[in-house]
Write a structure and sequence with these properties.
The chain is of the alpha/beta class. Helices cover 49% and strands 14% of the residues. It has 14 helices and eight strands. Strands 1-2-4-3-5-6-7-8 form an eight-stranded mixed β-sheet, sandwiched between helices. Helix 5 packs antiparallel against helix 8 (182-194) and helix 11 (274-284) packs across helix 14 (319-332). The model has no long low-confidence stretch (mean pLDDT 91).
């Protein structure tokens, strides 16, 4: 069911699904509550989250089913709109999932309103939008979107989708056009390119997870790593794949990382993701990072990041201590 709420940025459409702790989701640049659910993988991703949380989705100002006229598309306006949706949904305190441009908004909301945010998950985002592409490329893409939205949306589909089928490309192109007008799409894209939250990230004090695909062709992996480095205590989870959209390609590991991080712990003690627990057991077997990468079919730097996350979570200094912990866990499980 679609509901509406009045926010400082205009009237916003939102909906909820599932049950459990509230999770406010910002899916990225332009949105359409109904059209996005027509994508099977997007729908399944959200249903996976809704099995554990009350998922709150919404259309950005000027997009989808939200009001299209007399809206505030500024970055501050979008942050205010997201907070207004949380208020309307009755979420006094909530977790946040922000993807791509939505990651910047989610990070700003967490930094500015720490009393409202339980935890933060960022996917495929960057700290400084200007780092996404050279000046001339950014200007050309925005100009094309504004001048010829039909052609601009096709170009962006080619950027967002590695090797799409003809049907995928056509449907995603139409979905972008259904989600926003040329002017709104261009203004939001230009706003993303112009937004720099590097000075805000060190002030975030909520639990934070940064998920990023290593081969992301839209937002380079190094940009996600920078976000994780700037947020105190943030955990970085590198994942294989080239897709920028969180719900395309092998989306299950992305959803799994979100659930593992946000779901209430089943027992006391450090909470490792399923992959981190697997890596810890391989450390206990005496494997090096290079050998772990070979065994799991991942990049060596991914294995290194997993080991570092494990060390931080267990609050230990050495691989030997990781091995001791993993051995104890195996013995307790009867292995």
């Amino acid at each position: 069911m679609i509901r509406y709420c009045t926010t400082p940025a205009g009237r916003i459409a939102f909906s909820t699904m599932g049950a459990g702790p509230p999770l406010l989701c910002d899916a990225g640049w332009v949105t359409h509550l109904r059209r996005q659910l027509e994508w099977p993988s997007y729908r399944e991703f959200m249903q996976t989250l809704a099995a554990r949380f009350t998922v709150i989705r919404y259309d950005k100002p000027g997009c989808g089913l939200s009001d299209r006229d007399q809206v505030d598309l500024s970055f501050d306006g979008q942050v205010a709109a997201a907070l207004g949706v949380a208020d309307a949904a009755g979420a006094g305190r909530f977790s946040l999932f922000g993807a791509s441009q939505g990651g910047q908004l989610a990070a700003a909301l967490a930094g500015r309103h720490p009393a409202r945010v339980e935890a933060l998950v960022l996917y495929g985002t960057c700290a400084n939008g200007a780092d996404l592409a050279p000046d001339g490329v950014r200007d050309s893409v925005v100009a094309l979107v504004r001048a010829h939205w039909g052609l601009g949306s096709k170009v962006l589909t080619g950027i967002f989708f590695p090797d799409p089928s003809d049907e995928e490309a056509e449907d995603f192109t139409r979905m972008q056009q259904d989600s926003a007008s040329a002017e709104v799409a261009g203004q939001l894209l230009a706003g993303y390119y112009a937004t720099d939250i590097r000075s805000l990230l060190p002030d975030i004090r909520v639990r934070t997870l940064v998920v990023h695909r290593e081969g992301d062709q839209v937002t380079r992996f190094g940009l996600g790593r920078e976000v994780a480095a700037l947020i105190p205590g943030a955990t970085l989870v590198p994942l294989p794949g080239r897709d920028h959209l969180f719900y395309r390609g092998d989306w299950a590991p992305v959803a799994g990382a979100v659930v593992d991080f946000l779901a209430p712990p089943a027992a006391t003690g450090p909470r490792l993701t399923a992959r981190e627990a697997e890596v810890a057991q391989l450390v206990a077997e005496g494997l090096t990072n290079q050998a772990i990468a070979s065994r799991l079919g991942i990049a060596p730097r991914t294995a290194e990041a997993h080991v570092e996350n494990i060390r931080r979570k267990l609050e230990v200094r050495s691989r030997a201590q990781i091995a001791a912990w993993a051995t104890e866990q195996r013995l307790q499980a009867g292995g």
